[in-house]
Amino acid sequence: MDEAALDAMIDAGTTLLGIEMKPEWRAAVRMHLTISLGHAAVVLETPLPDHLDPAPVFRA
């Protein structure tokens, strides 16, 4: 994902959550988001055998 797409995700997330982000934090947030998205990609690429059921969804 390029920096423009990451910045769009950051802007959308901070707006949605009502979080005010200082400009000097953007590089660190972008780096951590890149790492998190990389971890998510590894999980999504891992095949789940048919005999396993997905975990239940927690609802509060």
Overview of the structural elements:
The chain has 60 residues and is an all-alpha fold. It has one domain (3-45). Helices cover 58% and strands 0% of the residues. It is built from two helices and no strands. It has helices at residues 3-17, 26-45. Helix 1 packs across helix 2. 0% of the residues are buried.
SSE layout:
Blueprint: H1 3-17, H2 26-45
Helix pairs in contact: 1-2
Largest sheet: none
Q: How many DSSP-defined strands?
A: 0
Compute the number of structural domains. Answer: 1
DSSP helical segment count:
2
pLDDT < 50 runs, ≥5 residues: none
Give the CA-CA distance, first to last residue.
33 Å
By secondary-structure content and strand pairing, the structural class works out as mainly alpha
Question: Helicity level, as a percent range?
Answer: 55-70%
Helix and strand succession? HH
Give the overall silhouette. elongated
Percent strand: under 5%
Please, what is the average pLDDT? 92
User: C-alpha Rg, in Å?
Assistant: 16 Å
What are its keywords?
58% helix, 2 helices, 0% strand, mainly alpha, 60 residues, single chain
How is this structure best summarized?
With 60 residues, the chain is mainly alpha-helical. It has two helices and no strands.
